[in-house]
Amino acid sequence: MLKKLITVIFILLLLIASAAGWGYFQVKSTLDKPVLTEQQTFITVKTGTSFRGLLTQLSNDKLITISPWLRWVGYLEPALTDIKAGTYAIKPQASLYSVLTMITEGKEYQYAITLVDGERFSEWRELLQADPHLAHTTDDMTQAQISAAVGIDNDKIEGYFLPNTYHFTAGTSDISILKRAHSAMMKELDLAWQQRASDLPLKTPYQALIMASIIEKETAVASERGLVASVFMNRLRANMPLQTDPTVIYGMGDKYNGNITKKDLRTPTAYNTYTMRGLPPTPIAMPSKASIMAAVDPDNSDFYYFVADGKGGHKFSTTLVEHNRAVRAYLKILRTQK
To answer: Which of 165, 168, 216, 240 makes an SS bond possible with 235, Cβ 3.0 to 4.6 Å?
Structure first.
């Protein structure tokens, strides 16, 4: 009798184990099925969403077909039910298991915004305001208020942010991006200042930032940055006006319509480097790392002048006579292009 009872118990246990194994196989097969999308699809999981709520959301978005076996996931794969809010990118042919793993690990989709070197803060601000994935907290703030919120000890915000591509998750605030860009700029500027040339005619890192912004606006040719910087350094040492058009344009503000007249060059502003000596009071754009390095470690040259050469670069000159000759050559090129 005991032997028969043991046999029955063994058979029952075997049946239970077989059923459990078959059930596990069914759950695993369901989790291994690919999602029903042929292109990358985004879903936003709200705070407080349950595992069952997520499955319903995926089903409503026609990404999965609900299976009765999914109710057992919590028992067999409990880690897959710890849902985290966020915006996620679901790729074609991704398995349901990989989707659930991504969501439970909080691997949100990383959006990107590129803040371009040489642009003004006003241009960056428009870009930030137009990004639909950022939380816009600065729309009604003045530049002085933004400066304070970022932690800048200056009401003038121009130049304080490092151009770069910044990645972020949906709902990140615009002020968060600016804080990261400011922190990156301060680190870059501090590192560059430590490597400055011994005879640099600049007294502070901020002056280097101002100079870097001018270099950034004066040339887009990487190999010229050091020479452009040398011209301005030579002028500073000689107490000559910098006479750089980008500062004049910046000082004109909204009055600038694409052209600079002789009257504009003679009209004093805080940024008109034709009517003043030394540096303007603030940067005029967001300088790149390369321009910052050129500002603190310029080339050694005896050049005091430069003008466009009509080929995308510049002609550098030591004397005014040579410079005037280069200007005439450039004007001749312009006439032939009309």
So the answer is: 240
Phi-psi category of residue 171: left, alpha or beta, with phi > 0 → left and psi -120 to 50 → alpha = left
- The pLDDT assigned to 1 comes to 60
Q: For 68-78, what is each residue's pLDDT tens digit? A: 878 888 888 88
Q: Which residue has the tokens 């009257």?
A: 263
SS (H, E, C) 19-65: HHHHHHHHHHHHHHCECCCCCCEEEEECCCCCHHHHHHHHHHCCCCC
* Residue 107: Cβ-neighbour burial (10 angstroms; 0-12, 13-18, 19+): middle
Q: Do residues 231 and 303 make contact, with C-beta atoms less than 8 angstroms apart?
A: yes
Hey, where are the domains in the chain? 27-104, 111-189, 198-337
Q: How many of the other CB atoms lie within 10 Å of CB of 210?
A: 24
Question: What is this structure's pTM?
Answer: 0.86
Which of 302, 246, 299, 280 shows the shortest CA–CA distance to 120? Answer: 246
Angle ∠(239,261,258) on CA atoms, nearest 5: 110
Residues 214-242: pLDDT tens digits? 999 998 889 999 999 999 999 999 999 99
Asked if 107 and 99 count as a contact pair (C-beta separation under 8 A), the reply is no
How many Å apart are CA 273 and CA 231, to the nearest integer? 14
Backbone angles phi, psi at 34, to 5 degrees: -70, 150
36: left (phi over 0), alpha (psi -120 to 50) or beta: beta
Distance CA 232, CA 202 (A): 11
Question: Which SS3 state, helix, strand or coil, does residue 251 take?
Answer: helix
State which fold the 27-104 domain adopts.
Answer: Dna Ligase; domain 1 (3.30.1490)
Contact 211/279 with Cβ under 8 angstroms?
yes
User: What is the model's pLDDT at position 8?
Assistant: 47
Residue burial 137-147, b: 16+ Cβ < 10 Å; e: rest? ebeeeebeebb
